[in-house]
Write a structure and sequence with these properties.
530 residues; single chain; TIM Barrel; nine-stranded mixed beta sheet; alpha/beta
Length: 530
C-alpha cells in the first residue's frame, strides 16, 4: 500500500443507494474508493488514517440544479456549495448556459446574462471554447454542464419575439450538436424567460431529438402557477416527441390560489411514467423562489431585448398596458406579483442600487411615496434591468409532497456566485436543510432516502457513472456529517451563513472542508458524458 492511501475508520455509512446505515471502514486510493469493508477488516498499516467515530459518511452531494456556470472565473473560490457537502454541480440550467456566444448576437447574450450573472470574461464563441476556458480556470466542485436553449436561440434569433422558422431550428440544432460533442450532458430550457418564452413545442421537440438517447431534456417549464399542468403537458409532449428523458426543474406550485395542488401534479407525472416516459424532477427545500427581477414583466415587454424593454419602461402607453397586465389575472403568462403580492417580492441583488437589497417592492413603494407598480418600474429603470429577486409564493404542504416522491432529486437553484446582495439562502443551505429539517426533525423522508435523492439518483439520471455511491471503483467524493449538530444557518436576512455539522468534505479524495473551514484548492473536474 502506498502513501496515497487513506483509511476512514468507524464511520456510520449511508452509501447513497437507499440502503440502511451501517458501520463501515472506507479505503481510498488517491481519487478513488478502493474498498468498503466491515470495521476493522483492513489490518495492514495505512499511511493516513481518519477516525470517523460518531460521524455519518455519505457520498458527496450532487446539486442537479446549479447556476454556477461562472464560478471558475471568480478570483475567489466559490465555497457556497462545497461548504454544505456538494461535490458535483449540474450547471447550465433554465436555458441559461454561457455558450454558444456568436458575434451576431453576442450583446444579446451578454445583456441577458447580466440580469443575474456578475461580469463575465466573454472570450469564447463555441461551447467547446467556453469549456476550454473553464477547464483552464479550474473547478472547486466537479461540474456537469448543460447547454441552454435560451443561449442557442439568442445565438440564432436574438430576442426575436416569434417562433423559430425551420432553417433557424436547424441552425440551433447544429449549435446543439457542437455542444454535445464538446461535452454537454443535455439540453435545458427556461420557457418562462426570454427568448425561450417565444418558442413553440415543436421547436423544443426538434432540438431534443438531437440529444443522444441517454442525455435528458431539462426544463424550467412555461408556468409554475395557474398554468402549471399545461406547462407540464408541454414538457411531456417534448419527451414523447423526441423519445428522450424529461427532467422538470425545481418542481413547485407557485401562487396562493394554486396551493394544495401538488398531489395532482405528481399524479400527472406518475401517469406519464406509467405510460413509459422517463420523467424526473428536482426541488429545493424552501417556500420562496428566486430569479431575475425582469420576470415580473409579461412576454411583450421583452421583445427586442434590453434597450427595447427599457424604452417601454419609459413609454406612458406601454406602462399603462403593463400596469393592467400585472394587475389582471389573465393567466397568459407567469405573473409572480399576482402569486406573491407586492410584499412577497423582495429585491435580492441590485449592484447599481444596493440600498434596495433585502427590501420588498411594497416597502420600497412606501419609502419612496409611490404605489408598488411605480416602485417596480423605478427600480427596473435605475438598475437597467440588472437585478434579482426572491419571491415568497409557495406552501410547505406542497413542498413536503414533492420531497416525499421517490423520483425527486435535490437542487439548490442557487443564482450565480459573485453577485453580492442578499441571495436566496438556498445557495448556502439547501443540502443540510433537507437532511436536518426534513429528514431528521420532521421525518418527511428518512435519512437514507434523503441521501439517495442527492447522490445516486441524480448520478444515474445525468449519467455520472462513477459518482453518487460509496463503493469500490467510485470517485472519492465524500461528506462526513455530525448528524445531531447538522443545521442550515442561512436565512433570508443573513443568507450567506455556512451550515453547522459538516465535519469534512473530500473532492476527488482531496480534503477541501474541515470543521467548517475551507481548505483552498480547486480539486473538482469537469465531468464528461460517456
Amino acid at each position: 500500500m502506498t502513501s496515497t492511501r487513506t483509511l476512514i475508520r468507524h464511520a456510520l455509512l449511508v452509501d447513497g443507494t437507499g440502503a440502511p446505515p451501517r458501520p463501515a471502514d472506507v479505503l481510498l486510493d488517491g481519487a478513488t474508493i478502493a474498498a468498503v469493508t466491515a470495521p476493522g477488516a483492513v489490518t495492514t498499516s495505512i499511511a493516513t488514517e481518519v477516525d470517523a467515530t460518531g460521524l455519518v459518511l455519505t457520498p458527496g452531494f450532487i446539486d442537479v440544479h446549479s447556476h454556477a456556470d461562472n464560478a471558475p472565473f471568480l478570483a475567489d473560490d466559490d465555497t457556497s456549495k462545497v461548504a454544505q457537502g456538494v461535490t458535483t454541480e449540474v450547471v447550465g440550467n433554465c436555458g441559461f448556459s454561457l455558450a454558444p456566444c456568436l458575434p451576431a448576437h453576442a450583446e444579446d447574450l451578454a445583456s441577458m446574462s447580466a440580469r443575474v450573472f456578475p461580469p463575465i470574461p466573454w472570450a469564447w464563441r463555441t461551447f467547446a471554447d467556453y469549456l476550454a476556458a473553464t477547464d483552464a480556470a479550474g473547478y472547486v466542485t466537479n461540474t456537469a454542464p448543460l447547454v441552454g436553449h435560451n443561449a442557442l436561440r439568442l445565438a440564432v434569433l436574438g430576442f426575436a419575439g416569434r417562433p423559430a422558422a425551420g432553417a433557424e431550428v436547424a441552425a440551433m440544432g447544429d449549435l446543439l450538436d457542437e455542444a454535445l460533442a464538446a461535452g454537454a450532458f443535455g439540453l435545458s430550457s427556461g420557457l418562462a424567460y426570454p427568448p425561450g418564452i417565444f418558442s413553440g413545442s415543436d421547436e423544443l421537440a426538434a432540438l431534443a431529438r438531437h440529444l443522444p438517447v441517454d442525455r435528458p431534456y431539462v426544463s424550467h417549464v412555461r408556468s409554475e402557477g395557474a398554468l402549471l399542468t399545461d406547462a407540464l403537458d408541454e414538457a411531456l409532449a417534448v419527451g414523447r416527441g423526441s423519445g428522450r428523458a424529461v427532467h422538470v426543474s425545481h418542481l413547485k406550485v407557485a401562487g396562493r390560489r394554486q396551493w394544495g395542488s401538488m398531489p395532482r401534479v405528481l399524479d400527472l407525472l406518475d401517469r406519464a411514467r406509467a405510460e413509459g416516459l422517463d420523467v424526473r424532477q428536482d426541488v429545493y427545500p424552501y417556500t420562496a423562489s428566486s430569479t431575475m427581477l425582469t420576470a415580473t414583466l409579461p412576454p411583450w415587454m421583452h421583445e427586442g431585448g434590453r434597450d427595447a424593454a427599457l424604452a417601454r419602461l419609459r413609454d406612458p402607453a406601454a406602462l399603462e398596458r403593463l400596469r393592467t397586465d400585472i394587475a389582471n389575472d389573465d393567466r397568459s403568462w407567469e405573473n409572480p406579483v399576482l402569486g406573491a403580492g407586492w410584499e412577497g417580492v423582495v429585491i435580492a441583488a441590485a449592484p447599481r442600487l444596493p440600498e434596495v437589497e433585502g427590501c420588498s417592492l411594497a416597502a420600497i413603494a412606501e419609502a419612496r411615496g409611490l404605489d408598488p407598480f411605480a416602485a417596480l418600474v423605478a427600480v427596473l429603470r435605475e438598475v437597467e434591468l440588472e437585478a434579482s429577486m426572491v419571491v415568497h409564493s409557495m406552501h410547505e404542504d406542497d413542498l413536503d409532497a414533492v420531497l416525499r416522491h421517490p423520483a425527486t432529486m435535490i437542487g439548490s437553484d442557487g443564482l450565480p456566485p459573485g453577485g453580492g446582495g442578499k441571495p436566496h439562502p438556498r445557495m448556502y443551505g439547501t443540502f443540510p436543510r433537507v437532511l436536518a429539517r426534513y429528514a431528521r426533525d420532521r421525518r418527511v423522508l428518512d435519512l437514507s432516502a434523503a441521501v439517495r435523492r442527492m447522490t445516486s439518483l441524480p448520478a444515474a439520471a445525468f449519467g455520472l457513472h462513477d459518482r453518487g455511491v460509496v463503493a469500490p471503483g467510485y470517485a472519492a467524493d465524500l461528506v462526513a456529517l455530525r448528524l445531531d449538530d447538522l443545521a442550515d444557518r442561512a436565512t433570508y436576512d443573513d443568507p450567506t451563513r455556512q451550515p453547522d455539522g459538516i465535519a469534512w468534505v473530500r473532492v476527488n479524495g482531496d480534503l477541501r472542508v474541515a470543521e467548517g473551514r475551507y481548505l483552498p484548492g480547486r480539486s473538482g473536474r469537469r465531468l464528461t458524458p460517456r
